[in-house]
Recover the amino acids of this structure.
């Protein structure tokens, strides 16, 4: 367990990211509402649709899906991915492979792997 992490939910997406919407919708004290930075969706379809909508609407760099917990580093690409998406995924997968070879694969998160690869901060949705 990580008591230092603030986890709440379910919170609707608009209330999770917009403090003004959160103030109207969330009637209890919340340290997450309006400031959430990690989103967990109920199924693959919802997560996939949401991250693609955010990526297209904002021009954000979307990383993922980044798979963890497998015996070998394997990641996936969308049929609609760009060259930049391919390069970012190759960078993350390469770092995962290097960490696994050094025995540190499980100790690092996908975000740390992306940072180690020099990939810019990314907007991602967990499915």
């Amino acid at each position: 367990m990580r008591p230092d992490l603030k986890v709440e939910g379910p919170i609707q997406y608009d209330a999770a990211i917009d403090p003004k919407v959160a103030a109207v919708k969330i009637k209890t004290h919340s340290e997450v509402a309006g400031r959430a930075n990690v989103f967990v969706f109920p199924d693959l379809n919802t997560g996939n649709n949401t991250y693609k909508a955010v990526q297209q609407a904002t021009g954000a760099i979307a990383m993922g899906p980044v798979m963890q917990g497998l015996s070998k580093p394997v990641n996936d690409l969308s049929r609609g991915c760009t060259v930049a998406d391919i390069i970012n995924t190759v960078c993350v997968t390469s770092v995962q492979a290097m960490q696994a070879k050094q025995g540190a694969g499980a100790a690092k998160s996908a975000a740390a792997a992306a940072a180690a690869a020099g990939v810019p901060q990314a907007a991602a949705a967990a499915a």
Summary: Helices lie at 13-17, 19-25, 44-58, 83-101, 110-116.
